[in-house]
Amino acid sequence: MLKYILVTDKSWTSLILRLFLGIVMFPHGAQKLFGLFGGQGFTASINSFTQMHIPAVLAFLVIMAEALGSLGLITGFLTRIAAFGLLCDMVGAIFLVHWQNGFFMNWFGKQAGEGFEYHLLAIAISLALLIQGGGKWSLDGALTGGKKTLSHRRW
To answer: Which runs of consecutive H residues, i.e. helices, occur in the chain?
Structure first.
């Protein structure tokens, strides 16, 4: 089972997608987990989520998906699991927070909050990584010996 999670090809596309998504998501996770980049840190983030009526266990999973999942994507370690976590995180963000603000981001400060267009892009990238795997220079590829290709999967 683990080999099916790790198997990947040597795609430049997957490398680019996972690096960009991981680099973009890391500051969000670092804000929530460590208080970096002007964030609140772990305890205050959990409290903020629970004040929005989001259960603490889901808040914890969001923080881990963003912080550890982004590092997993950057290194290409457990890429599919990290991508799945971020996909779930973004779906939850749309429906629990951003749906009411509409599609567009709040570019001109005329909305009550941010829309969900950014989240849809993160979902699309996550889906591509779930299908394709970590690609070139991923730890997943190194752990499987780099010999496996997508054609060897039996789903």
So the answer is: 2-6, 12-34, 42-51, 56-75, 79-93, 117-132, 139-143
Per-residue confidence (pLDDT) for residue 151, from 0 to 100: 52
**Helix, strand or coil for residue 18?**
helix
pLDDT digits (tens, 9 = 90+) for 89-110: 999 999 998 989 888 888 888 8
Q: Is the pTM of this model over 0.70?
A: yes
Three-state SS at 115:
coil
Cα torsion through 80, 85, 90, 93, rounded to 10: 170
Kindly tell me if the per-residue pLDDT of 7 is higher than 50: yes
For residue 153, is it within any domain? no
Cβ neighbours around 63 below 10 Å, total:
21
Q: Which domain holds residue 64?
A: 2-142
User: What's the DSSP call for residue 101?
Assistant: G
Q: Is 89 exposed, middle or buried, given 0-12, 13-18 or 19+ CB atoms closer than 10 A?
A: buried
Provide the number of structural domains found in the chain: 1
The CA distance from 100 to 105, in Å, is 12
